[in-house]
Design a protein that fits this description.
Radius of gyration: 16 Å
Helix content: 40-55%
Structural class: alpha/beta
Order of helices and strands: HEHEEHEHEHEHEHH
Number of helices: 8
Oligomer: single chain
Number of strands: 7
Strand content: 15-25%
Shape: globular
Length: 175
């Protein structure tokens, strides 16, 4: 039997499973950047509903979550005010997700701090491609080295990252 879905990179990407986890407590995305992030994720394969971790006691995080839910994300309200509570919840749910088969081929992490090196190491050991979007002021060299320059982006560079894509924004978002 011929494996036709592997004939081109574009066709292959359609069959890759992509999961995305966002730390909204540390990375704030305006409407345009949120749309571009989702378009980027969808360009990598079949995107599962992304999860956004936030705390509803903070108005700016609630507004970010409302915007992201309108775009198809699932909000996870982390009410625990303990240090790194959203980070811990994100790590727990990401590990739980990769334990379910079939696990994603690609995981996109949208982070605002340096606390995810252990998670990235585990994901890569499982053979999962990890792509990271981070804040410019909090990205560590270790984090960049873990995923490699080709899989690391600054969240504020989303507009230029997708600028070369000539496909209509509405078409990208409905894919």
């Amino acid at each position: 039997m011929v494996d036709n879905h592997r004939t081109t990179g574009k066709q292959k990407s359609q069959f890759q499973r992509v999961a995305m986890f966002l730390d909204s407590q540390n990375v704030h995305l305006n409407q345009n950047k949120a749309e571009l992030l989702l378009a980027f994720a969808k360009s990598k394969g079949h995107l599962e509903p992304p999860k956004n971790y936030y705390n509803s006691h903070h108005k700016n995080q609630v507004n970010d979550n409302i915007r992201l839910e309108k775009l198809g994300c699932i909000g996870v309200d982390v009410l625990d005010s303990g240090k790194n509570s959203a980070d811990k919840q994100l790590v727990f749910e990401c590990i739980k997700r990769v334990a379910i088969k079939p696990s994603p081929d690609i995981i996109i992490l949208v982070l605002g701090d340096r606390d995810f090196a252990g998670l990235i190491t585990v994901l890569k050991a499982l053979g999962i491609k990890v792509i990271v979007f981070a804040r410019r002021d909090s990205a560590s060299k270790k984090l960049i080295k873990l995923v490699g320059n080709e899989n690391f982006y600054y969240a504020d560079e989303l507009p230029s990252l997708l600028a070369g894509n000539t496909q209509n924004k509405a078409d990208r978002l409905s894919a």
